[in-house]
Design a protein that fits this description.
It is a single chain. With 152 residues, this protein is of the alpha/beta class. It has a single domain (8-141), classed as 3-Layer(aba) Sandwich (Rossmann fold), CATH 3.40.50. Helix content is 18%, strand content 28%. The protein is globular, with a radius of gyration of 14 Å. Helix 3 links the parallel strand 4 (76-80) and strand 5. A 7-stranded mixed sheet has the order 1-7-6-2-5-4-3.
């Protein structure tokens, strides 16, 4: 179910949207991010971290370790599957133990999960419109998501 589409004119606006979105996230929520390289996925996660009372400076793309954990109002499990060769390796890292745990899971490059994509999640697509402008689309996949439209 399509929830909303937002035009972000800058990295600061993308971060502000992530911070706003975090107000609606709760333990066990899964956010799957889709978008090309450099589209602003990590910037969005920095905003989510801010909204969960986590210092955004701690958030970086965990491309070499597959996952980082940040402690805040809720733990934030930040997955980045950019370097994942194939989805077979997912099962060996205990990925699903975090997805349904006490925190919020945010997955960059979720398209690389293949059959390991969760049954229910908040889907966020981030697309380039111009050099600075992004189009951010939210959809609830096989789950309900309480959300109020973002006003910026």
């Amino acid at each position: 179910m399509k929830i909303e589409q937002i035009a972000s004119l800058s990295p600061e606006e993308t971060k502000a949207f992530g911070k706003y979105l975090a107000k609606f996230l709760d333990k066990g929520d899964i956010v799957c991010l889709f978008g090309e390289l450099g589209s602003g996925k990590t910037t969005l996660i920095k905003g989510i971290a801010l909204g969960l009372d986590i210092d955004e400076l701690k958030v970086n793309s965990p491309s070499f370790v597959l996952m980082n954990i940040y402690q805040g109002r809720l733990p934030l499990y930040h997955f980045d599957f950019y370097r994942l060769e194939d989805s077979k390796g997912i099962g060996s890292i205990g990925y699903d133990e975090f997805l349904y745990g006490d925190g919020v899971s945010v997955i960059e490059w979720a398209d690389r999960l293949g059959l390991f994509l969760p049954d229910g999640y908040l889907k966020i697509e981030v697309k380039h419109k111009t050099f600075d402008e992004r189009l951010i689309s939210l959809s609830a996949i096989n789950r309900d998501f309480k959300y109020e439209p973002f006003v910026h």
